[in-house]
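# step 3/5: fold
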Amino acid sequence: MAHHAYYVAGEAEAGISSALSFAERELGFVQEHNPDVVVLRFGLFSVDDARKLIDSAYRSASGDNGKVIIASMTRVFHEAQNALLKLFEEPPEGVTLILCVPSAGLLLPTLRSRLLSLPISHNTESSSLVQEFLSASTTEREKIVTKLLDRAKSDKDEIKQGARSEAISLVEGLLRVSYELGKEGKGKITTQIADELRDFEDDLSTFLPILHERSAPLKLIFEHILLVIPTSLAKAEV
């Protein structure tokens, strides 16, 4: 029997795409022209947004197979998560809920305990950027960051937003690779390396919500990343 609530941790559009694929493959919900496949995109998810999600869940489905609601958010207030606890504990019959968040670390343990994790389909271009960054020398990484910061200061909004999206993708990718290395390396890596990876992941999880703000201090964030990135990530597979 399928579970009723899931989460996907990663880049927003990749997360939504993964959730849609899961809904079609495992739950039988065809995406195209289907009013029972609801995708909601939020920035900072507030208590008011939680009410909107709850209202959407309790609206009757158009068909007989129920419906799936995919909610993507870049940041989540704790109060908003608490407002969702009852919904995710006992959703309306036939409703499947999928949250898409930048990092699982953004979710409160009380909410995350109600959700099952779904794998994410990673963006090839994003993975290429992460691979380039990890395989680069310290000097080359600094050059990559400098170019990124220069584009983030552009007078052209399209270039500026593209740079910010690239910054988010890079941090999300580094978080994913670090997590996977730690998970796959259990029993094979030293305690020191495992601790370094966890500390690095904590830092990245803290930075991700901030990066989604227009005034995010990119220079300070990436200077910190350059200083603390574990050397063990250099050989990690993307």
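# step 4/5: annotate
Residues 124-235 form one domain.
# step 5/5: archive (pending)
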